[in-house]
Amino acid sequence: MGSGEVTARGADAVREARRKPPGPCAQWDSGAADFIREILDLVGDKWSVLIVGTLAEGPVRYSALADAIPGISQRMLTLTLKHLRRSGIVDRTAYPQVPPRVEYSLTELGASLLSTVLDLAGWSAGHHREVRDRQRAFDAAADRAEDAAAAPTKR
Prior knowledge:
Order of helices and strands: HHHEHHEEH
Radius of gyration: 23 Å
Strand content: 5-15%
Largest sheet: 3 strands, antiparallel
Structural class: mainly alpha
Distance between the termini: 66 Å
């Protein structure tokens, strides 16, 4: 082991000891926190939330998924389904018939995520006007501050 490795490990230990995050993050070590962020990136993505929610009622064909999720491109649908399948949240079943038929469904793991996803989507739908109003107010205040900062000062 080189001295650079020891120094790096020592620095990590000092940082870890000094940095005690408040709130829910305090209960996880940095390795668990990294994995939590990875999972939240996967399941908290806007397309993932909509796909999981759409699959709530059972298997759905690819084209029906595309039609049910406004604004999703074919590429994003394919990519997101691949990520969800890789993580064991969505299952893909291909039926050997002409024309070929493929359906996507939630796995048991995906179904366990469903209530959380539906709650998040419900919260979003229930609060979208309030959030938009606050965003507009924030942007207007930021614009006024920017205009005031850019105005020439008179002496």
